[in-house]
What does this fold into?
Amino acid sequence: MSFTVVEPCTPRLNRSELAVPGSSPNLFEKAARSAADVVFLDLEDAVAPDRKAEARANIIRALHDVDWGDKVLSVRINGLDTHYMYRDVIDVIEQGGERLDLIMIPKVGTAADIYAVDMLVTQAEAAVGRTKRIGLEAIIETALGMANIDAIAAASKRLESLHFGVADYAASTRARTTMIGGPHPDYGVLGFPDEAGKRDYVLGDVWHYAVARMVVAARAHGLRPVDGPFGDFSDPDGFKAAAHRAAVLGCEGKWAIHPSQIALANEVMGPPEVEVERSRNILAAMAEAEREGRGAVSLDGRLIDYASIRQAEALVAKADQIAAKGT
Ligand code: GLV
Ligand code: MG
It folds into this structure.
């Protein structure tokens, strides 16, 4: 192991993250009662410019009045290039009470963007004597943000997660897309001809690099990598396929832009039962080896390495969190 220790951020269940427009307060109660692990109330792209102030007021009211239960609650502020952003941070912290857990920063381009928000949050928290420290979520959704992703991931002790915002990322990189977060018919591999001369055409994952890059940056800094939206909410199979790809690469969760996507994200992002079972067996074997004073841990006749033990600990901790939540 390196002498540099990667400190994990505040552990939270983040399998599903439900997006709720701040301008639609009629959706807040339903979001609070949903099975989403995290809810983010949006002040950014789901809210029209002439409704920003109203959305901010709705959110501040809901932070006090809605019973959010055990939800991790986040507010997506506007970008640092707008004139809404400072007031988003200040008003939500000064008037929103203690309930808020996280602030989500869109279109992060440089580490200085995170630094600037951290500075504002720190001042506002101190000014109101807030006791619960607000964490930060950063959306990587521009070419600049992706180019600076390692510095962004290291920019603040408040950071908890990186999110891949595929819709804006496609716009920023000028990628050709047909559907938010989905495949593209032109992004495929044409195989070799078989005996009859037929060639299979297999679609590739357009977003592979971006998601994998985000996972590496997030994990290298103890943050949760979270995959962003899948636009077609009438396509649950497409959503699940995208979520499975992200989970295989190491993501902890995926956005839900519609309530129907919450259960799908929770199902895919929860650890598979067989893996939890095996992890519990690994930990039991480790405890037994410790009791017997043996250095080497083995299971089913095979030696278990330390990486597997650490992975088993993380998986079991997550399974226990899910069990405690009951969904
Ligand atoms: C999310 O904000 C996205 O742009 O995909
Ligand atoms: Mg976006």
The chain has two domains: 16-270, 275-325. The chain has a mean pLDDT of 95. The longest helix spans residues 306-325. Residues 106, 139, 141, 165-168, 228-229 surround glyoxylic acid (ligand 1) (CB under 6 Å).
